[in-house]
What does this fold into?
Amino acid sequence: MLHFGDNAYDLVGAFWTTIQLTFLSAIGALILGTLLAAMRLSPVPMLAWLGTAYVNVVRNTPLTLILLFCSFGLAGTLGITLVDRNSPTSIDDSNFRLAVPARSSDSGAPSGNP
It folds into this structure.
């Protein structure tokens, strides 16, 4: 029998964070996917090309690489610090805020041909 003991509160918190990440990423992916699908079906050749290029690049990029790009590239560009000296784990809360666009961009790229 599995006994969680003192870690039950941490597990519930981690589960809640996963639910939040899934919900926010799903909303972002829905918006991005709708926009990309409209771009790919657009009669304007440049929009169709940009939408197709984005989908082809992101669909063929591993999620781990997208997460690393958001964690280091996007954080450095926006000036977000990834380390919190006051936290017991020294991980800042902004990692969650960087994971949402990473998951949204990965899930938002529609699959298949328009």
